[in-house]
Specification:
three-stranded antiparallel beta sheet, 14 strands, Aspartate Aminotransferase, domain 1, 13% strand, Aspartate Aminotransferase, domain 2, five-stranded mixed beta sheet, alpha/beta, 16 helices
């Protein structure tokens, strides 16, 4: 018999959750223009919008907040954060930023020239936006299997080395400032990259004089999958695997709001002193002094503690296990989800879930809205809306049309996951009642944050029969 396990923590403080009626949720959804990003937190029951900045910090982290050194220059808290990054991640040079996109902005400005190409293992929204704003063209070099939600592959985040070689041959190594490797790959369903693939990418790039920069936002989750799935690593600690993993890069951008277990902050790390010097100059312009960037001393203290807590094997095993607890219930009920289940979220395959809707009717956006309407569970779209428009003004149409159920770290119990599963199963049973959406407003970039929609049904209702 497989023995059940519990959360590797106990609860010290609780927050009361909103439990609105159906009619109250309907009004909240209408006010938000059917965009879950625009729903007030006070109107949400279980919030699976994102795992970014939604972590519950530990008692050690809360204690560390009280020791924060808020000196404008030369903060002691900065020294502790810098040392934690060096110890756990292995990079020599570190610059704090207000969050991950602050690091993306600086890296993109320094490394990219107009007309460059930045290959990556599937795009991420803010990363690609910074690359394109600085004149680069993003090129997807992830393996083809990543675009098939049902294909079982242990490392669907892997870079296709042939695609990368073809691009180098086509445009020339001098037009590729760096290869951006996400570990794990968010938009593929939280899928990991294997250690061997990281080694191979690093070797190939360095043979052409091209840098490798990681999006290391969920790197601890990636290390856990290597331990679990890749031959030769099962006996190693996650901390050991992580440090080797990151050694196959020249630097990284980090959103500390995920695997660093804090609510705000990030950093840019690297091993090149010249790049560090140039980056430090831009940190002063966009973020703040190099000894605090966009962070307070107290949050640097909390992040230094969180970096070390995140590589605890018991913590990360439970973290991945809770995501699977939700995903496996949905698979057992026949719900179409991205497989295998990833590290930070369960991704519903909205294209299959709402097969009666064309992609131009925004099925993932409609499904996320319907889930909130049904139960007060907030999720988010990762499909045609997130993909934005191309240079001709046409919708980008990704193969993956997904709804992301993102599990915050150390926030919910498995009972909450059961409630989510029940709601999704109920929705699937009445899926034909869900109509598509029209887009009433969109900004020019990163439209998924603030776009507004309305139902296509003549009745004006998102779901018929309710």
């Amino acid at each position: 018999m497989t023995r059940r396990t519990a959360e590797p923590y106990k609860i010290k403080s609780v927050e009361t959750l909103a439990m609105l009626t159906y009619d109250e949720r309907k009004k909240a959804l209408e006010r938000a223009g059917y965009n879950t990003f625009l729903i007030d937190s006070a109107d949400v029951y279980i919030d699976l919008l994102t795992d970014s900045g939604t972590t519950a910090m530990s008692d050690a982290q809360w204690g560390a907040l009280m020791t924060g050194d808020e000196a404008y220059a030369g903060s002691k808290s900065w020294k502790r954060l810098e040392q934690a990054v060096r110890d756990v991640y292995g990079y020599q040079y570190v610059l704090p930023t207000h969050q991950g996109r602050g690091a993306e902005n600086i890296l993109s400005q320094l490394k990219i020239n107009p007309g460059d190409y930045v290959p990556g293992n599937m795009y991420f929204t803010t990363t690609r936006a910074h690359q394109e704003l600085n004149g680069a063209t993003f090129v997807d070099i992830i393996i083809d299997e990543a675009h098939d939600p049902l294909f079982e592959h242990s490392f669907k985040g892997n870079v296709d080395l042939q695609k990368l070689e073809n691009l180098i041959e086509e445009v020339g190594a001098d037009r590729i400032p760096y290869v951006c490797v996400a570990v794990t790959v968010n938009l593929a369903g939280g899928q990991p990259v294997s250690m061997q693939n990281l080694k191979d990418v690093y070797a190939l790039c360095h043979s052409h004089g091209i840098d490798v920069m990681f999006d290391a936002t969920r790197c601890v989750e990636n290390a856990y999958f290597i331990k679990e799935r890749e031959e030769g690593h099962s006996h190693r600690s996650v901390a050991e695997i992580l440090k080797e993993m990151l050694s196959y890069s020249d630097g990284c951008t980090m959103s500390g709001k995920k695997d660093c277990l804090v609510n705000m902050g990030g950093f840019l790390a690297m091993n090149d002193e010249e790049l560090y010097t140039r980056s430090r100059e831009l940190v002063v312009v966009y973020e703040g002094m190099p000894s605090y960037g966009g962070m307070s001393g107290r949050y640097m203290e909390a992040m230094a503690v969180g970096i070390r807590e995140a590589v605890d094997d018991h913590y990360i095993e439970h973290r991945i296990g809770q995501v699977r607890h939700l995903g496996e219930q949905l698979i057992a009920a026949g719900i179409p989800v991205v497989q295998p289940i990833g590290g930070h979220a369960v991704f519903l395959d909205a294209r299959s879930f709402l097969s009666h809707l064309p992609q131009e009717a925004f099925p993932a956006q409609a499904l996320a809205a319907a889930l909130y309407l049904d139960s007060g569970v907030r999720s988010m779209e990762r499909g045609i809306v997130s993909a934005g428009r191309n240079q001709h003004g046409e919708h980008n149409t990704p193969k993956l049309e997904l709804v992301r159920l993102t599990i915050p770290r150390r926030v919910y119990t498995n009972n909450h996951m059961d409630v989510v599963a029940d709601s999704i199963i109920e929705l699937y049973n009445k899926r034909d009642s869900i109509c598509g959406l029209r887009m009433d407003y969109e900004p020019p970039t990163l439209r998924f944050f603030t776009a507004r929609f309305s139902p296509l049904a003549e009745s004006g209702d998102l779901m018929s029969g309710n």
